[in-house]
Each structure stands twice: as C-alpha cells, then as structure tokens.
Amino acid sequence: MKEYFAFQWHITDECDQRCRHCYIFAGSGGMKPGFMAWEQITDTFYNCLDFCETYGRLPYFYITGGDPILHPDFWRLLGLLKKHGVPFGILGNPFHLTGEICLRLKEYGCRKYQLSLDGMRSTHDWFRKPGSFDITVEKIADIKNAGIRSVIMTTVSEANINEVPDIIDTAVEYGADVFAFARYCPGKGEKGAGISPFEYRRLLDTCHRRFREYEAAGCSTYFNRKDHLWTLYEYEEGIFKIPADACEGVIYGGCNCGNCHITILPSGDIYACRRVRDSKVGNTLKDRIADVWTGRMDEYRDYSRFKKCSGCELLAWCRGCPAAACGGDGDFYAADPQCWKEVRK
C-alpha cells in the first residue's frame, strides 16, 4: 500500500491575528501579507501530484496560512481537491467558522480542522488576541457536528509550560478529537524556548500520566504524542523498545523533515520544514518538486552530520526537533536543546 506524503500548503499570509510566536510576521516590520493567485495554485497542485506519481506516494494536503479561509479562491481550491479525490485537513483560525461553513467543508472532503490553544484564557489571548480562547473552544462543537475531526494543538514555551495540563483538561472537556503539542522554535537571534531539558522531561511525564488517566476512563480524545522526544521518554520508561529486526541505516520514524513532508509558502517557495528557518530548497512555480526532492533536500537526510543524534541508538526513531535545534545559531545538525539524554560516541 502506498504511503501518504504531506504537503503543508500556506496559500495566504492573510490572518485575523498577529500572534506573538508567529513565524510569518516575526520581525517582518509590517510585512504585507502575500497570497497565491489561482493560476499559481493550480500549477502548484499539479506539481505536487506529479511528485507523488513519480515517487509512488499518495498526496495529503494541510491547507493553511495565515488563515486559509481568507483566500479569495479558498473554496475553488477545495473543489479542485474534491475533483481529484485528494484528502486534506485545514490548519486555521476559528473566527470564520459556523455550523454551515463546517458542513460545507465536510462536503468538500475536509477530514480534520486544527485549532490552537496556547494557554488558558488570559495567556492564550495574550499570545493571540482578546476573545480568541472562548471562540476557539466554542467552535470545537461546530467542527465535530459536521463530522470533521477537531484537533487542538499547543505550542509550548516558557510562557505556558505550566498551563499544559489545564489545556489538556480543556481539550477533553470540550470534546476535541485530538490533542497534541509541539515546542516553540526560536527565530534568528533568540536563545531558545526557555525550557531546560529536565523541565521538558517533567512535562512529558506529567502529560503521560494525565493521558493514561483519561485513556483508562474511556476518554474519546486521542492524545497524539507528536514531539519526537516522546520516543526518548517512552524508551526510558520501557514503553518503546527497539525492534529486534531493525535494519541498520533504515529510518523508521522521528522527524519528517526530508522524509515525508514539505512546506509550500504563498510565494511558491518550498521549505524542508516551515519551522526550520533558511530551509528553502526550491520554488513550485519554477522548479519540479520531484527534482528538488533529490537535490538540495538531500542535506536534510544526512543523518551522520547530526552532532548528538548520530551517536544515539534512537537515531532511526527520534532525532528530536532539528527546528528547535537550529533556532538560535541556525545549525540544523545541532543538539536538540530540550534533549536530556547523554550520548557517548
């Protein structure tokens, strides 16, 4: 069976918010939001399909922005996806969602809609804008009632790490189908997310216990252990074991950068990962993605260059988060700043 390949496609920078941790507008100095024209959208779409046909993969699109629903050709794009039977999810805001809009999204084939909660009410609204917390949790019901999976995602930093257990409770209370969190990746000149390795391990331990309690109680929310350092935690706790039949040199999981994911920006620029700054490898309006994949993208698959992970027995399953690693000095191969494992080479 063919495996899926994920395209995180930012069709517009237009957004109702200016979040404090936004990668788009950080240091932009009032940057004018960009968006893809319809002809560029169709060129990019068929470029993606060509890639999947070339490498025997199935396309899956995460349509995002900005807020993708603000793009003037948003529904036209969803029609194109439906015409070709291509599955997709939306990473967006709650502000333009209604019961009717959610039903329309479902008709076009939307499988999941991801919203963000970056703290409890005061913290989340400080990150985003006043009223954002309340409208976000309210829209979970509209998404679910339309038959779309509702996803709550949290970006963890020193500003909200102590609120994560309460965010989990909130996601469960409002019936989110999926909950996950990832770490904030610092931009150029920033020192980091402000979380020590052992603080982060304590968070994973706390969340693991909370997840287990809810799972034992029959909670319907799926807790997606998205961060790759979950692999290290579960390895130490005896939950994950290295398979006896694992082959040396084979990558089985961990960071998707260079493996089964690319990001496309409104300009057409192709990034190995949106969270990895300076990871541009091409442009969909000028380059064939299938050619880019075996060109500059190769450097993101050179696992021998990882300064810490290359000496770890979990290399094929983890590799932490290179985006978090390169946030400060731009070194993609640097050690994950929240990894607590001691590695002897």
What does the secondary structure layout of this molecule look like, with pairings?
Blueprint (H helix, E strand, L loop, with lengths): L3 E7 L27 H18 L2 E7 L9 H10 L4 E4 L7 H10 L1 E7 L4 H7 L4 H14 L3 E8 L7 H10 L4 E6 L13 H20 L5 E2 L5 H8 L24 E4 L4 E3 L8 E4 L5 H4 L29 H5 L19
Parallel strand pairs: 1-2, 1-8, 2-3, 3-4, 4-5, 5-6, 6-7
Antiparallel strand pairs: 8-9, 9-10
Give structural notes.
This protein is of the alpha/beta class and 345 residues long. Helix content is 31%, strand content 15%. It is built from ten helices and ten strands. The chain has helices at 38-55, 74-83, 99-108, 121-127, 132-145, 164-173, 197-216, 229-236, 289-292, 322-326, and strands at 4-10, 58-64, 88-91, 110-116, 149-156, 178-183, 222-223, 261-264, 269-271, 280-283. Strands 7-6-5-4-3-2-1-8-9-10 form a ten-stranded mixed β-sheet. β3 (88-91), α3 (99-108) and β4 form a beta-alpha-beta unit. The longest helix has 20 residues, at 197-216. It is globular, with a radius of gyration of 20 Å. It starts with a strand and ends in a 19-residue tail after the last helix.
In short:
By secondary structure, the protein is an alpha/beta fold.
Which overall shape is indicated by the principal axes computed on the Cα atoms? globular
- Class from helix and strand fractions: alpha/beta
Largest sheet, spatial ordering of strands: 7-6-5-4-3-2-1-8-9-10
Strand content: 15-25%
**Helix/strand order, N-terminal first:** EHEHEHEHHEHEHEHEEEHH
Which key terms come to mind for this protein?
345 residues; ten-stranded mixed β-sheet; globular; alpha/beta; single chain; 10 strands; 10 helices
